[in-house]
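batch job 7 of whatever, protein = PPPDE domain-containing protein
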Amino acid sequence: MLCWKIPVKSSGGSVPVYLNVYDLTSINGYAYWLGLGAYHSGVQVHGVEYAFGAHEYPTTGIFEGEPKLCDGFTFRKSIQIGWTDMTHEKVKGAMEKLAEKYRGDAYNLITKNCNHFCNDACIKLTGNPIPKWVNRLARIGFFCKCIIPVNLNSTKVGDHKIEDKVCEGEKKKLRCRSNRFSPNSSSSSPPREETRGSRSKSPVTMSSPLITDIGTS
């Protein structure tokens, strides 16, 4: 087995930080044991899961949701990456900074995907990277893109796909949501209420509303 357990290095914090890993394809049932596979991942801290996905607008692709319940994927496992001493508000501030780099229209399956985001977020929160096997397929694909399954280019998170074009109805919905979290929008609006157990994604309420609920990985 090549998916070795990575020892957790303590960074002195008291709040655990987890990487929640999901299967993108049933082939992972075999590939996982070889240290390969196609995975989606999210970072869980303070009871919230943060992830990154694609859309066609120049706004952030970072979104938050219910831990271990990312719609469209099959949850595989949760890995403790380390600990952090950041409060919930400081974590949101860290995500806000990452949002400047991880725009929805900058998503790339090989060079800037959900696992790249999780790696940066985990290093920022704990000082520890994510296990290499989680994003190994992207690193191999950087040198040999032909090995990446074509169907992964339209893998879904929620109702949105990674495609060159989306239907006009979807464009209107995405544009509406993007405008709602633009710098000119009011940050005093109350966040959406979400019933526990629901798999829908929701925006992060913060001083500068850069986090949106549009995501595809």
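notes: Confidence is low (pLDDT under 50) at residues 153-199, 205-209.
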